Amino acid sequence: MSLHLLRLQPDSSALAVWATRHRLLSPDGDYGYALHALLSATFGELAPKPFHYLGGRQGLLAYTSADLEILHQNARLAPPDVARALGLDHLDARPFPSAWRVGQRLGFEARVRPVVRSKDGREWDAYQHAVIGTVDSGQIAGNGSIAQRSVIYKDWLEKRFGLDGAAQIAEAHLDSFRLTRVLRKAASSDNGKRKTTNNAGPDVVFKGQLQVGDPTAFNRLLERGVGRHRAFGFGMLLLRPVGSC
């Protein structure tokens, strides 16, 4: 697998105008669906995911295994408003490492949406799902302290890192937590229109250190991302050398 790290510098004003015009801005100001739509409009099936939008100053980062020349060709075909909103004139990319050592330590940061699906198909906050049925679930659910959530969310993250033995968490802390509403569109109805919904859930950033398990599985984890909603700004695993700022 040949993975590349892409960087785009969306124009904050143009992005806000485009998202508002197309009614793709959530009530909480989340740009996840708007950026998903812009990337899909530009790159089609090759739209990079997972991605992480770091704001107007730092821009958007994404992983892709697609051919870079084809991505550049598609970018040149984008309409002017899409190109301005995404900053396609300054699309930058570099090869990302793929050779990892078993036991190698790396610093990481990940914005994730720790949710689980119940048997009836509904999506639950992993914290709420964990406390259902416990003796003191009412008390815990009522308090919902950051410390309690952190333990459950970290366990959720550990399980996803551990898929196929990809990695283990060496240490991690919950850097930020909030409940946000994100825009999603349901399947097409009988009239062909897709109903827009605002789904509330946990919006969490973890920072810490991980230890590489199986290098091949770790590469798959990077390419796939962590958890659900990976096409909408969640799940990208950002890496850095241990000890860096």
UniProtKB/TrEMBL annotation:
It holds the Pfam family CRISPR_assoc. NCBIfam families: casE_Cse3 (TIGR01907). This is CRISPR-associated protein Cas6/Cse3/CasE, subtype I-E. InterPro entries: CRISPR-assoc_prot_Cse3 (IPR010179).
